[in-house]
Structure formats: structure tokens, C-alpha cells
Amino acid sequence: MIRVISVCLMALLMPLSLPIQLLFAAQKPLGSDTLDILDTSLGVDQVIRKVEDNLNGKTAVMEMAMVVKTKRAERTMKMKSWSVGNKKSFIKILYPGKDKGITFLKLDNAMWQYVPRIEKTIKIPASMMLQSWMGSDFSNDDLVRESSISEDYTKKLLGETETEYRVELLPKPDAAVVWGKIIFAVSKQYFLPTTVQYFDEDGALSG
Amino acid sequence: MSYTDVQSLGDDGNRFYPMAWTVTPQESEKAGHQTAIKITEAVFDSEVDPSYFSKRALKRFSR
Asked: Which keywords appear in this protein's UniProt record, sorted alphabetically (chain A) (predicted)?
């Protein structure tokens, strides 16, 4: 399911949301003092916040292509996104022709869609947030959700290799989130995610 | 979800960004499904017209 843009899609997507997006002061890889900051839970918070900063930036303008594959078909979409931090995003579909001009707006945790064919602006209701975004494996929620990783989850360093940190995110009791757990693998070189695993409330791996 | 193809961006090349994102659902009913995003252009920390972020913009910038 989705995760950027705001991102990452919005977070882009997501990025997707994601991923998304994801998506913001990206930076040169940290120096040799990097390991020290992981000695406390605050250090883990800083790692995740830096990942979010690297993905989002203060602002981001992106063009992207999205390929959605299913058992029976494959289709390609092209889009452009404008975002400010991870709170405001605007996406415009550029291709294919039948979807061209569809636009999406994300403001904090609210999302709207404009469909030019019917000249209607639609607010995406809460009940639709887990639905697929544009037929992809991203959900509407993935586009919105990227904004709350730092705020809505507790973080724990699970371990590290020479190249990556492995961080577990568990939702805070009062957080309005859909995932039961998220595992982030973070590149030590770039402070960017390499893989992100999403688990539902029953502990099943979703994607 | 995986993030790959990290590239340096910007005039000074100091920003690194994963240009490819791939989601592979793990649910059995979605076996064989995959969504891949390839970022073809990315500009960070430039001025963005604030008028994009209003409901009025949805129709205005649709064209």
C-alpha cells in the first residue's frame, strides 16, 4: 500500500507516499559523529526526522512517472507535484489523456480531488482514505499519512549494519494511524530510507 | 516499499534523493501487483507559488 509524496507523493505521492514523496535539508552524509546520536531515543527521533527532511525539503517540485502492474495489465501515468514541507501538496495528472487535468490537493490531513470531466471538486472522505489512489498500490491515506511519522510514532533502534540503521516505529496510543508497526531501514550514507515495511494491526506485513 | 537510484541533485550536488520508489503489496490477493514511481525531475527549496494550495487551485491549475 502507499506510503510519499506527499509523495512523498504528495509526498509526491509518496510518496507515497508513501511515497512519499515522501519527502525534505538534505544534506551531505553525516560525519563520524553520526553513531553517537543513536545512543538515546532522542537520537532515533533525529534520524527519522532527518530522513523526513531529506525526503521533503522546504519545498519540492517534481515530475514523475508511475507504472502500475497487476496480473492482467500494466499502465503508466505521468504527473507533476508541488509541495511545501509535508503539510501542503498539489498533484496534477499529465498523462494519460483520459486522466489529464485531474488534480489533488492535500492540506494537513485533508484531501480534495478535482475531476475536469465532470467539473467537480470532491473532498476525499475519511471512509475513502484506505482506497487505492488512482488505481495504484498507494492509498489516499498514504499521501496524507507521510506528514505524521515523526509525530505519531514512537521510535526504537532495532539494530544496524555497516550501511544501515533499522528502526521500528510503533503508533502512539492516541495517534490516528492505520499501521500497527513500521520498520524503516535507513541508509547511513544518505540518511534516506532504503526499505520501509508496513504491518497491519494484526502484525501482518502489508507491503 | 523500496527506495533506490539515489542521485545527487541541485547546483551544488549536496542533496541526495531516491529517484525510484517501488511498492510490492504482500497480501495474497495482490500477488503480482507492483507500483513503481520514477522521478524524472526534482527541484528542492525553490520558491513555490502559494496559490497552488487552495481549493480554488484544483480547477484553476487543472488546465
From this structure: Signal
Domain regions of chain B by residue span: 2-61
Distance between CA A175 and CA A151 in Å, rounded? 9
B25, B47, B59 ranked by CB distance to A137: nearest? B25
**A3-199 topology per CATH:** outer membrane lipoprotein receptor (LolB), chain A (2.50.20)
**Residue B52: pLDDT above 70?**
yes
- pTM, to two decimals: 0.80
CA distance B16 to A131: 31
- Which amino acid is located at B52 in the chain? Y
Asked if B44 lies within 8 A of A204 by C-beta distance, the reply is: no
Domain ranges, ordered by start, for chain A: 3-199
Q: What is the mean pLDDT of residues B27-56?
A: 94
Q: Give CA angle at A21 (A38, B11), nearest 5°.
A: 85
The H-or-E segment that residue A185 falls in is: strand A181-187
Cell matching residue A143: 499521501
CB contact under 8 Å between A15 and B21, yes or no, is yes
- In whole angstroms, what is the distance from residue A174 CA to residue A133 CA? 26
